[in-house]
Amino acid sequence: MKNYGRFYPYLSLCGLNCSLCTMHLSGYCPGCGGGEGNQPCSFFKCAGEHGSVEFCYMCESYPCEKYDHATEFDSFITHQNMIQDSVKARQIGKEAYKAEQEEKAEILKVLLDNYNDGRRKTFYSIAVNLLELQDIREVMEHIKTEINPENTGKEKAAAAAGYFQAAADRKGVVLKLRKKPSTPSGQKQKDTE
């Protein structure tokens, strides 16, 4: 969909949190509908066929068959909560959801700037995506008060990651990307429907 733009690029059309994505943060992706080269997604074509809705949750058919397997595996961002996040955005409103995502994005920037040993970018992105804002705030309070600023970058990163892992364990959240199993070379993957 050429020239398709969105006013709220923090949440993708399908429900991914673009503002918490490592590709977006690194400047490799302008976000869903945010520029050229990022619109081969089947959700865009579908949105055009349904009145160019800004979020799939605005469609009367939501959630449709496009979501049947969409949350099973992740890409460079977690897909686990895309339906729940869309439902939340619909329930609390775009502005309230945007404010929450902006706070999460600021926290993620702090983590990447101060507690990343070069290996935690994806981990922090997943944690901030999947944990509730209140849980993230509590973890950040522990980080602020309990991690010695004199520690090495590696020590600070390990401690911060430990606090997030403990919070995730309490909530039963797995902080890893779920990759689609690869198929043997030359063999097409069978349709699971």
Large-scale geometry: globular
User: What is the overall pLDDT average?
Assistant: 86
Largest sheet: none
Radius of gyration: 18 Å
Strand content: under 5%
* Helix/strand class: mainly alpha
Summarize the structure in short.
The chain contains 7 helices and no strands. The chain is mostly helical and 193 residues long.
Explain what the structure shows.
- It contains 7 helices and no strands.
- The chain starts with 21 loop residues before the first helix and ends in a 22-residue tail after the last helix.
- With 193 residues, the protein is an all-alpha fold.
- Helix 4 packs antiparallel against helix 5 (121-130) and helix 6 (133-146) packs antiparallel against helix 7.
Which features characterize this protein?
193 residues, 7 helices
SSE blueprint and pairings:
Blueprint: H1 22-25, H2 42-49, H3 82-92, H4 94-114, H5 121-130, H6 133-146, H7 153-171
